[in-house]
Design goal:
Elements: H1 11-36, H2 39-57, H3 64-97, H4 101-120, H5 123-133, H6 138-145, H7 152-171
Helix pairs in contact: 1-2, 1-3, 2-3, 3-4, 4-7, 5-7
């Protein structure tokens, strides 16, 4: 793969980025860990923070520390909110409809089936469905996956159809369609 002059970072930019990374990574990861309470997830978010820095802010003037900490805290809080919403939805599903151990087991089995079907889908379809399930807007989904926002509705519809087809293939009819 060849790079154009615009795409290839200069050695100076790479060395400067490495200096910033080495100076701030440990502290950024610790700050994120305090928020999300998961060291592995904190390292993933820290890597995303530095990726954003590389792509957007490294040419900005001033100390990068403030920018890095601000973005790290915001991304950690966003991740925490997503995780909390997901747990709340799963808990509501379990509590709302389930009054017996069999019903609770059935709901857990449904979640496992959904996860297995998502794993067999085209990665882009699975990403679309997961991002939409996390309450992201169409424009946020389009930006994160590099898609045209105007075509997102169609792509989501196709992903839902692919999910439904694969679910029926593996497990028979969907429970809410019975």
């Amino acid at each position: 793969m060849s790079y154009t002059a615009v795409e290839r970072p200069s050695l100076g930019a790479s060395a400067e980025f490495e200096t910033v990374f080495l100076a701030h990574y440990d502290r950024i990861a610790r700050v994120i860990t305090r928020v999300v309470n998961d060291p592995a997830r904190a390292e993933e978010i820290a890597a995303e923070v530095f990726w954003k820095y590389w792509r957007k802010a490294r040419n900005a003037s001033g100390d990068p520390g403030g920018w890095l900490y601000r973005v790290a805290v915001r991304m950690a809080l966003d991740d925490l909110r997503r995780h909390t919403r997901r747990l709340r939805r799963e808990r509501e599903q379990t509590v709302r409809g389930a009054t017996t151990p069999e019903e609770i087991h059935s709901l857990a089995e449904d979640r496992d089936r959904v996860r297995l079907v998502l794993a067999t889908l085209n990665p882009r379809d699975a990403e679309l469905l997961l991002l939409r399930a996390d309450d992201l807007t169409y424009s946020d989904i389009a930006e994160s996956l590099g898609l045209n926002p105007a075509s997102l509705g169609t792509l989501l519809s196709r992903a839902q159809q692919a999910f439904r087809k694969e679910y029926v293939k593996q497990y028979g009819q969907l429970r809410n369609e019975q």
